[in-house]
Amino acid sequence: MSAGTPGTDLLQIDEQLSDEERLFRDTVRAFVADRALPHVADWFEEGTLPREIMPELGKLGVLGMHLEGYGCAGAGAIAYGVACRELEACDSGLRSAASVQGSLSMFPIWRYGSEEQKTEWLPRMAAGEAVGCFGLTEPDHGSDPGSMRTVARRDGSDWVLSGNKMWITNGSIADIAVVWARTEEGIRGFLVPRGTPGFTASDIHKKLSLRASITSGLHLDEVRLPESAVLPGVTGLKGPLSCLTEARFGIAWGVTGAARACLESAIEYATTREQFGKPIASFQLTQGKLAWMATELYRSQLLALHLGRLKEAGSITPVQVSIAKMTNVRTAIDIARQARTVLGASGVTLEYPPIRHANNLEAVLTYEGTEEIHTLAIGQALTGIAAYR
């Protein structure tokens, strides 16, 4: 089903999109239908995402698409959100690969990097020829990145990095890692190319969520880098947190795609599955589930659209992003679980998307700010009291 057809988008929310935004929607949706949807259940079951999907996303123009120059599309925030939505309608792992590339790896280079760093990396990353990852989370420090143990010390004209990062999307396939480390002057960002002596990545296996995604640990053992590897434009937590705000915006949009896919699957199944001599969609309890899922989805879509307008107006704040990320992910999980009940026993198989989306969204609820941390950020904005400690 199309999100714009009567019966699935009763509020006609996509009618609010511009012609350019609809073009991105249709282009990404067609790519997903042709290239990804036929294979995503296998990728999920096998626990992988093909590396060759990245240059294909580059040709599509979605890698770093909200950035200006250096081969990036320079699209608006809503167009970027719509692209994230269509990618995640396929799988959260596919959207994660694109958003980690654009918002967590390319964005810090674009915002805080030197001209030499931008010229060297951004065009290749926009094309998907070079893959990036974002090294902030550590085994013992997720929600409290300010306590990170990864350190960088000066040694003559060089920097030497040591530490470990955990739960890193694209880690083992990345050509460049944006690694955040403590220094005497504060937290700094470093560009660590693949193959640098002392820098290794190992994949994390036995995941039950985000299986169609490469997730790795990074290990830095006395990694020596030149001064030119430092992002010169930022010092302190502002650097990594601003990147996370960019990525969370994409999540707030993306999860509405996962929720939509679950609703569409439930409607299709309910109108074709017969019990007691008629389609289960004719029963009041089933219609009640479908109506609840649809109205909750519309609320999330409207929140994402409002967030996009705030971003394009230049007035968006991190707490507004926290509101949308927390609310929309929780809503998407609830829709996925409800859709699964409509499908009955069939809903626990990879033949249908709800259980896969439900599993993926458990990770999305946690990464790039847990639900608890976003709750406290909103609470602080309401009361003026920080309850983190």
Quick summary of this structure?
By secondary structure, this protein is α+β, with helices and mostly antiparallel strands. It has eleven helices and nine strands. It has three domains: 114 residues, Acyl-CoA dehydrogenase/oxidase, N-terminal domain (Butyryl-Coa Dehydrogenase, subunit A, domain 1, Orthogonal Bundle); 98 residues, Butyryl-CoA Dehydrogenase, subunit A, domain 2, CATH 2.40.110; 146 residues, Butyryl-CoA Dehydrogenase, subunit A, domain 3.
CATH classification, class level of the largest domain: Mainly Alpha
**Estimated helix fraction:** 40-55%
CATH topology title of the largest domain = Butyryl-CoA Dehydrogenase, subunit A, domain 3
How many individual domains?
A: 3
Number of DSSP helices? Answer: 11
The low-confidence runs, each spanning 5 or more residues with pLDDT under 50, are 1-6
Q: What general outline do the C-alpha atoms trace?
A: globular
Order of helices and strands: HHHHHHEEEEEEEHEEHHHH
Write out the CATH superfamily name of the largest domain. Butyryl-CoA Dehydrogenase, subunit A, domain 3
Task: Please give the oligomerization state of what you see.
Answer: single chain
User: What's the total number of strands?
Assistant: 9
Largest sheet: 4 strands, antiparallel
Strand content: 5-15%
Q: Structural class, from helix and strand content?
A: alpha+beta
